[in-house]
Every structure is written in structure tokens, then in C-alpha cells.
TrEMBL record:
Name this protein carries in UniProt: Short-chain dehydrogenase/reductase SDR
Family: Belongs to the short-chain dehydrogenases/reductases (SDR) family.
Gene3D superfamilies (alphabetical): NAD(P)-binding Rossmann-like Domain
Keyword Oxidoreductase listed: yes
UniProt source species: Rhizobium grahamii CCGE 502
Amino acid sequence: MESTTDGQAKGLAVVTGASSGIGLKLAQIAASEGYDLIIAADEPEIKDIGTHLGDLGVAVEAIETDLATVEGVDRLIEAVEADGRSVDLLLANAGRGLGKAFLDQDFTQVRRVIDTNILGTTYLVQQIACQMRSRGVGRILLTGSIAGFMPGGYQAVYNGTKAFINSFSFALREELKDTGITVTCLMPGATETRFFERADMLDTEVGQAEKDDAADVARVGFKAMMDGEGDVVSGWKNKFQAAVANVTPAAILASRHAKIAAPGTGKDKTGKS
């Protein structure tokens, strides 16, 4: 990957899940701030995204790879090593959702959610963070979720993976507090992305409800990362939900979540369910 035309790139940013949604917006922000990019996703669209991001005046390498596997993450790591520069920013955003009742889910899809959200993310973070530690500098942003604060009826596996990411982020930040590396957890609520379509949740109340803007969420997360904050919940409604979740019994949270995430809870344009 060539450097920027004037050689004045601020550094190198790696962004996963960058083909759409929050990941794409994070990549755009990093590029607008002058960072060269290595972006990755498991969709062919990532190549076109790389071309468009290059129009912002930075060098971009786009990697289509399966971030739910060790081998797929290794492909991304190989691209980083081939670049020859150290990673300044790691924005580990890749994630996958899955709706409907757990017993009705295809376990192949269940495992893919777990492997993408947990296995691939933690493996990538360990590989890049070890590199950062050798330099004594670096910033890591993990995309968690306020879903991680509550048991998710009809999103049991997804919410469980986000609970892991939230917890993992806080623990890793503590371990790295004296190394020069900062770890930030971005915890958005429902956001206007392709998430609910991909998770087969368009017929749910939460799938049809008004959602936060992905660009706004990304700006909040990027700023928190650059400021070295430990965590940030985007949007005042989500902050309120997170605060309430911390003092509400788990059984009540699971029941409330089920009411908005169960199949068939959405309403059509006439307001009928």
C-alpha cells in the first residue's frame, strides 16, 4: 500500500466491518482525519468502498476476508505486516446479529455470530495490541452495544456476545493502562444500518423503530477513542437505557427485550401489527 500523495499521513488505521454502517462511517472519519487505511469485511463491496475512501486523499487497502475465522483474520494481519508500518488505530467493529428464538435458529448461523463477534475480534485485538505494546503507543476502539447490558429475549446469542465485548474491553483497558495503549468501548443502541435486515428482524418492533444515525454514532465513538475515554454510550436515550439496565433485575430486562425483538411485533405502515 502506497502512502498518501504528500507523505503526511497521520498514521495507519485498521477498520473491520467497514463495508457499511458504523464501520464505514468510522473509516470515513479516520480518512478525513488523514489516516491511511486498511479496511476489511467479508463482503465484496469492501473493494468499492476502498476506492471511494481513496478519493479522500489517503492510501487505502481493502481486504475481503472472513473475520469469523482465525485464517480470515490472519489474512488481514498479513496485509498489515506487508504494509510495513505499525498500526496507530484499531477500530474493531465487525459484528453480526441474529434474531428469532434460540431454539429456532440454525446453529451454523449461531456459531457465525459467536465466531465473528468474539473469536475473530479477540484474536485480531491480541495480534494488533501486541504490536502496539512493543511501540508503547496505540488506540483501540471496540464496538460493543447497550445490548450487552441486558439479556436479549429473541436475541439471546447476540446480546451475550456484546456482553462479552463490553466486559472484555473494560478488562483489557485495565491491563494496558500503563502501556501507552488506550482501549475504548463504543456502546450504541439500535442504529440505522443493515443490521436488522441481515439478522432477519425487519418484522420486529425494534427492527421497524426509528434508529440512531450511523454517522453520529461513529463520530461519538471516534472522538471518545481519540480522547482516550474508556467507554461511551451514544445518544441520550441509550444512556438512559443503560443506566436503567444497571439497576433492573435480569428477568425483567429479558422480558422487556422480548417484547420488542420477538418476530411479528413490528407494525406495518398503517400501524397494524
